[in-house]
Amino acid sequence: MKKLLSIIAILSLSLTVWAKDYNKAMTEAIDKMYQARTSQEYLEVANVFDRIGSAEQDEWLPYYYSAFCYTMLSTNTKEAGLIDEFLDKADEYLATAEQRKGDKVEVLAMKGFTAMLRISVDPATRGQEYSMKSVGHLQQAMQIDNKNPRVVLMLGQMQYGTAQFFGSGTSEACEMFNTALELFITEESQDLGLNPRWGKSQVESMLTKCEG
To answer: pLDDT at position 170, please?
Structure first.
């Protein structure tokens, strides 16, 4: 009995140490991700998340953040081939995050983001296909949680881009950005732990365009 209790105690201690190590590694990597600006910095931190995800078979967030890094990499280049290559990689990571029972709303928001960015390669030929894909992901996310600021931000960006493409007004999109900003401010008061919190600077940048 004493031996069994000792084994249980050792296992409990190991789980505690694992949790601390995982949280520490993820916190450091997430901080580096939010500070990243260059393609090299995003690539380096994506590789860190990849290693964490390989080591922790039940965790979805490392692959979600790898996807985010590759999505940001796609925004740092003008080469069509590289944009698609980076977004393909992002979508692969999102598929893994989904397989690991990742937060459905956050994964759908990122899927909407990657589909939206594919439009930029050739808006004339890709606009309809990827607009529908992006909006489809985002509307599905909205049905689950219409208070997620990243979902509202992405829908606003889709609406803004569509309005610009057709030369129509952007007032509805700007209203969505205002709503997203309020949701981001509310989110800042919450303890999100390792969960996604990106997007506020993005919506602030869009609101500047609305005011211009």
So the answer is: 96
